[in-house]
Design goal:
The complex is a heterodimer of chains A (about 160) and B (about 500). Chain A is an alpha+beta fold and about 160 residues long. Chain A is built from 5 helices and 9 strands; from the N terminus they run βαβββαββαββαβα. With about 500 residues, chain B is of the alpha+beta class. Classes of the chains: A alpha+beta (about 160), B alpha+beta (about 500). The interface between A and B is large, with 34 and 50 residues.
Chain lengths: ~160, ~500
């Protein structure tokens, strides 16, 4: 299964991902309409994008009283069926990431739908914090980065 | 309402503790295109002659353009205008601030925000999605910028709030104090810290959730994606990412920045850069920017928020400090106290030179000779200026004229002038396309040119001076002229003192 890989230490807090997400899904720009959210702790320069992880064992699916949380065929993305959702917010509390958000207009929850397999947020992230890792090891880039650091430190010793 | 705009102006009166919103006529928005024009037109409508910067009626104006708060690349800048305290006689001054404040203002539902009046006790403004509250700030008064921002965010229970605040320097009404948000992005060269301090306004905290609507979303999205790619792949961008705006200083400019080259010895610059680089860790970006030229500082396991390397240059080799650690210390001090690094550096440079040549051999400066390290000397001197109650230090206003229309254009639409003007990674037609996509206007280059010349005329009228079309741009650093002006100011201090008492 493909996944959005997040490397938080590379995030610069520019919020391009939020803007791209809300623009492509809703046609207007706003953080509150975005499926991906940047969290910040500016005094320690930590910026962290949070987005639905499309878990293998999704707690949101288990807790949803109306069965509105569904998996999309093709990308395996977990999404909310707006017709079935009653806006009870259970999925937000059940989610270990707090990833689902309330749509300001419909008051239903919304999560990342992986943009039909081409997530826009990963395309606009020029800092390299977000990338879409198709079919394979989502942590490959992190492993590679760590291996490189290790290699360098061994070389300089 | 025109798409891209909110069509509202937020008016705040701190004396009466009142806030209200006004409609900005669509014709005005169409005519001025954005922040700088809106501010200039507000000032020329309301003020026939300049008012004293310390007077309650002196407004602080923040304004943004139609592309602020959208995906448009490098659109995170805010235009700010006021009558500046940085000259003997009040003069209309304007500046621009990178970062995230403008986008939050737009999301809160306003294109422009005008703050007037004077609070009787320290306050901070809490603008929550269009609602304004005046909160007590007694407990924040005297606190450093970091602590202020974090305290306000914790009080509001939301770390996503953007807090624009002053530090103790602004509270003490030091003319070259600045405002800072996200502990990294500053509004410099206008004396904003002084203006906030006079109004007893400690901070402006903003949270906005309103969407920015667009006329042609699909077209706009494609345009933005194309432009982001174009900018990101630009040859010079890599350098800018690594070295920040420092990479833009040319060889000649670097030579020129020292008053003379007595401090410059071979290899020292490189040594400075190496020791500075060793302390940098991550990157920071303005709102919706594909460049990310801000850097964060790693200080003994603890990450300290951003440094922008052109500021580091000013607090480093420009004043003869060739130790990266001391540059960082000076920068950290400016950041915590809320001091304008550019003006602080030009002042320090002058004084340090005076210390060396003996021209400034006043009693309190004499002991500076005993300190060996130039960086330590700078630090001690700055401490002395801030703590010694010398808040009468008078600095001239930075030259505010630009040499190119492109620069003004970038400012009008709240774009990053480094990307637009210095690196030319976005053309005028790109900007026109973006504006048309967002607002549904059918702009031509001629329209923009008309607006630029009108704004120039308006600003020169406000500044009461003749139009100079070929003024040298001094945006990236303050040159010799600036420094000699400061010296002249010292001589004229008695005159300005009497003026201040009279006003």
């Amino acid at each position: 299964m493909s996944a959005i890989s997040i490397i938080p230490e590379r995030c610069t807090g520019c919020q391009s991902c939020e803007m791209a997400c809300s623009l492509s899904h809703e046609g207007s720009c706003s953080s509150s309409l975005s499926r991906i959210r940047m969290k910040k702790w500016e005094e320690i320069s930590v910026f962290m994008p949070t987005v639905c992880q499309h878990c293998e064992k999704p707690p949101c699916m288990d807790i949803c009283p109306t069965g509105a949380r569904k998996r999309l065929p093709g990308t395996d993305a977990m999404v909310t069926d707006e017709k079935q959702c009653v806006g009870c917010k259970s999925c937000i509390y059940a989610c270990p990431y707090g990833a689902p958000a309330i749509h300001p207009a419909t008051k239903r929850t919304m999560t990342c739908d992986l943009c039909k397999g081409q997530p826009l947020c990963t395309q606009v992230c020029t800092a390299g914090a977000l990338s879409y890792v198709p079919e394979g090891d989502p942590s490959m880039e992190r492993k590679r980065a760590f291996a490189q650091t290790l290699f360098h430190s061994m070389k300089t010793r | 309402m025109i798409n891209g705009w909110t069509g509202k102006r937020l008016r705040i009166d701190l004396s009466l503790k009142k806030a209200w919103s006004e409609d900005i006529p669509p014709a005005d928005l169409r005519q001025w295109f954005g922040g700088r024009g809106l501010n200039a037109s507000f000032f020329s409508q309301h003020f026939r002659s300049p008012v004293s910067p310390a007077s309650p009626e002196n407004p602080i104006a923040f304004a943004v353009g139609p592309l602020t708060g959208t995906l448009a690349p490098c659109s995170g800048w805010t235009s700010i205008a006021s009558f500046s305290p940085l000259s003997d006689f009040p003069v209309y001054g304007f500046t621009r601030m990178p970062g995230h404040f403008g986008a939050s203002l737009k999301a809160a539902g306003f294109d422009q925000c005008i703050i007037q009046g004077k609070a009787d006790r320290p306050v901070y403004l809490w603008i929550d999605d269009g609602e304004v509250k005046f909160e007590k700030a007694d407990h924040l008064w005297g606190k450093e910028t970091t602590e202020t921002a974090v305290t306000v965010q914790e009080e509001k229970g939301d770390r996503s709030v953007e807090v624009l605040c002053i530090g103790p320097a602004g509270e003490r009404q030091i003319p070259f104090a600045n405002v800072i948000h996200r502990l990294s992005w500053t509004g410099d060269r206008l004396g904003l810290g002084y203006l906030f301090g006079v109004k007893q306004l400690k901070a402006v905290a903003i949270r906005g959730k309103k969407p920015v609507t667009l006329q042609h979303p699909k077209q706009f999205l494609d345009l933005c994606l194309g432009l982001k790619d174009q900018i990101h792949k630009g040859q010079k961008i890599r350098k800018l990412q690594e070295k920040g705006a420092l990479s833009l200083l040319s060889r000649e400019e670097r030579k020129d920045t020292r008053n003379d080259n007595r401090w410059l010895f071979p290899g020292s610059e490189k040594q400075w850069a190496t020791s500075l680089w060793a302390n940098l860790s991550g990157w920071e970006g303005c709102f919706s920017c594909p460049v990310h030229c801000g850097r964060s500082v790693q200080d003994q396991e603890k990450c300290l928020a951003g440094i922008h390397l052109e500021k580091a240059w000013h607090l480093g080799p420009q004043i003869g400090v060739y130790s990266g650690e001391w540059t960082l210390k000076l920068h950290r001090f400016c950041q915590a106290e809320g001091l304008d690094p550019f003006l602080t550096a030009s002042l320090l440079g002058r004084i340090l030179e005076g210390v060396e040549t003996g021209t400034l051999s006043e009693e309190d400066l004499r002991q500076m000779d005993e300190i060996e390290d130039q960086g330590e000397r700078a630090f001690a001197l700055l401490r002395r200026i801030i703590d010694g109650g010398k808040d009468e230090f008078d600095l001239s206003a930075p030259p505010v004229s630009e040499n190119e229309d492109l620069d003004i254009l970038a400012d009008i639409v709240s774009f990053c002038m480094i990307v637009v003007n210095r690196l030319n990674l976005m053309t005028v037609s790109n900007i026109i396309d973006l504006m048309n996509g967002a607002t549904g206007y059918a702009l031509t280059i001629q329209d923009l040119q008309d607006a630029i010349s009108k704004i120039r005329q308006m600003e020169s009228r406000l500044q009461n001076k003749k139009l100079h079309w070929n003024d040298q741009s001094t945006l990236l650093h303050l040159g010799k002229g600036q420094i000699s002006q400061i010296l002249r100011k010292e001589e004229r201090r008695n005159v300005s003192d009497s003026y201040r008492t009279a006003s």
